[in-house]
Design goal:
heterodimer; A: 135 residues; alpha/beta; Beta Polymerase, domain 2; two-stranded parallel ribbon; 7 strands; B: 369 residues; Cytochrome-c3 Hydrogenase, chain B; 3-stranded antiparallel beta sheet; 14 helices; 8 strands; 49% helix; 13% strand; globular
Chain lengths: 135, 369
């Protein structure tokens, strides 16, 4: 069971892990993100369905949705970050499709992604000030 | 590469944001070495309307018509992704008649969207006649939508709990007539375009997308199925009544523009078969579940996932228990496909960019939101 494997492998870095329908929802600390993404990809989640962020319930978290194309199964990884100065490792080296969604999270929420090849705004104009989707 | 005594530089050529072949307001910064593309930087956001932010200040019913305007060539699939996420949070059971009607609407949208693809793809490659033919057939679908829902394009008919309107008398007959007519028209398109030497020269072997790369870029839909990957949400993660219907997932192994084109042409035929099955099996009953007038999904999150004509169209919804969504994020297949475009046009020429961009069939409404 993927859930048990993840909890065994990442121990305390995993705050919660629960299966909700087709989704294995995991909350991890930023330091475990890159390792967990690689772990999932090596177990068949080759498809970066989505990367976005949510500012709700008093916290900002970046949400990664990794999936295996043949099945409906998804691993949904939430990583809390501070609203100002939040930084996470870029997953571009693991999923080339991370390039644009990470730029969007940077543009609308202000999170920085270390190692991103081209981190700049994508939807808003280059001279826009602020990050509108923060509450 | 001819040796030259003259020093040369790469030329930056802007394609767009106003350009007949960019399928909307898109700018491609092409870096050329002579005629060959050595770099491509897409610039998007020209159609950004802040729809996700707007969603945080609207009720769930008020937000629905905004979804029509994302992938505006297939409004029903956008509606469904949002409605599906909301229904998951609320635990709503959609009545069977409504589920079959939703599939009819979704598949008519698929054919209409693929007809626009056929018409505009051909037009981009200067096969103007095919453009007129594609839109001729699509008008028949617009008539069906107008007859059923009251709108040609932005339907907002898939609502939380079911569909807003039942089909009127005479609709099933007209829809069947269309499904009977379509295959012969598609045969006509094949005679007109598919085997044409010029069309083949511009699409075969052009714009290769290897399957593992496509998956790694988050590609889906015909863009990925044209590389032989049989990933279709209607089979991988079935919704509505797709698990009861007989249809083929169309794939092509060639990984090129022609492959992606052939997938969409094949899908139109499958969609007509799906519609006929739904009309045959359509049960009696309600078209709308009992859902209160105030929609306040319990706190939590859900993801609605639909196989739109472009691929995986998703709606990630977070509720705080209040009347407005706390967060509504739209996962657009075209966004991911455009991210892969620079990789696909590398080494080709400017004329090939038109074919490759056309073959991934993007809609800027869903890219920019």
């Amino acid at each position: 069971m993927m859930k048990d494997e993840i909890q065994r492998e990442f121990g305390e870095a995993v705050a919660t892990a629960e299966q909700v329908g087709q989704e294995l929802r995991v909350r991890v600390a930023p330091g475990a993100l890159a390792g967990l993404a690689r772990f999932c990809r090596d177990r068949g989640c080759h498809y970066p369905a989505d990367i976005t962020a949510v500012d709700a319930a008093g916290e900002l978290r970046v949400v990664y949705r990794l999936a295996a194309p043949e099945t409906g199964q998804q691993v949904v990884i939430s990583v809390p970050v501070p609203r100002a100065g939040g930084r996470l490792p870029s997953l571009c080296g693991i999923y080339p499709g991370a390039e644009w969604p990470e730029r969007e999270v940077h543009d609308l929420f202000g999170v920085r992604f270390d190692g991103h090849p081209d981190l700049r705004r994508i939807l808003l104009t280059d001279d826009w000030e602020g990050h509108p989707l923060l509450k | 590469m001819t040796a030259s005594l003259t020093p040369t530089e790469h030329v930056i050529l802007n394609m767009g944001p106003q350009h007949p072949s960019t399928h909307g307001v898109l700018r491609l910064e092409l870096q050329l070495e002579g005629e060959v593309i050595v770099g491509c930087r897409p610039v998007i956001g020209y159609l950004h309307r802040g729809i996700e932010k707007i969603g945080e200040a609207r009720t769930y019913q008020q937000f629905l018509p905004y979804t029509d305007r994302l992938d505006y060539l297939s409004s029903a699939s956008n509606n469904l992704a949002f409605v599906q996420a909301t229904e998951k949070l609320m635990g709503v059971q959609v009545p069977p008649r409504a589920q079959f009607l939703r599939v009819v609407l979704l598949e008519l949208n698929r054919i209409a969207s693929h007809l626009v693809f056929f018409a505009t793809f051909a037009n981009d490659l200067a096969a103007t006649t095919a453009f007129l033919y594609g839109f001729r057939e699509r008008e028949l679908i617009m008539d069906l939508f107008e007859m059923w829902v009251g709108a040609r394009l932005t339907q907002s008919s898939i609502r939380i709990g079911g569909v807003a309107q039942d089909v009127p008398a005479g609709f099933a007959e007209k829809a069947r007539e269309f499904c009977r007519l379509l295959p012969s028209r598609l045969d006509e398109y094949d005679r007109l375009l598919t085997g044409n030497r010029i069309f083949r020269a511009r699409t075969e072997g052009v714009g290769l997308l290897p399957p593992e790369e496509g998956i790694g870029y988050g590609c889906s839909g015909p863009t990925l199925r044209g590389s032989g990957v049989a990933f279709d949400l209607r089979r991988a993660d079935p919704y509505e009544v797709y698990d009861r219907l007989d249809f083929a997932v169309v794939t092509q192994a060639a990984c090129d523009c022609m492959g992606r084109y052939l997938v969409r042409m094949g899908e139109m035929r499958e969609s007509a078969r799906i519609i006929e099955q739904c009309l045959d099996q359509l049960p009696d009953g309600e078209v709308m579940a009992k859902v209160g007038r105030t929609i306040r999904p319990p706190a939590g999150e859900a993801y609605g996932r639909v196989e739109s004509p472009r691929g995986e169209f998703g709606c990630y919804l977070v509720s705080d228990g209040g009347p407005h969504p706390a967060r509504v994020h739209l996962r657009a297949p075209s966004f991911f496909h455009l991210c892969a475009l620079p990789r696909m046009v590398q080494g080709w020429k400017v004329g090939d960019v038109v074919a490759i961009l056309g073959s991934i069939d993007i809609v800027l409404g869903e890219v920019d939101r």
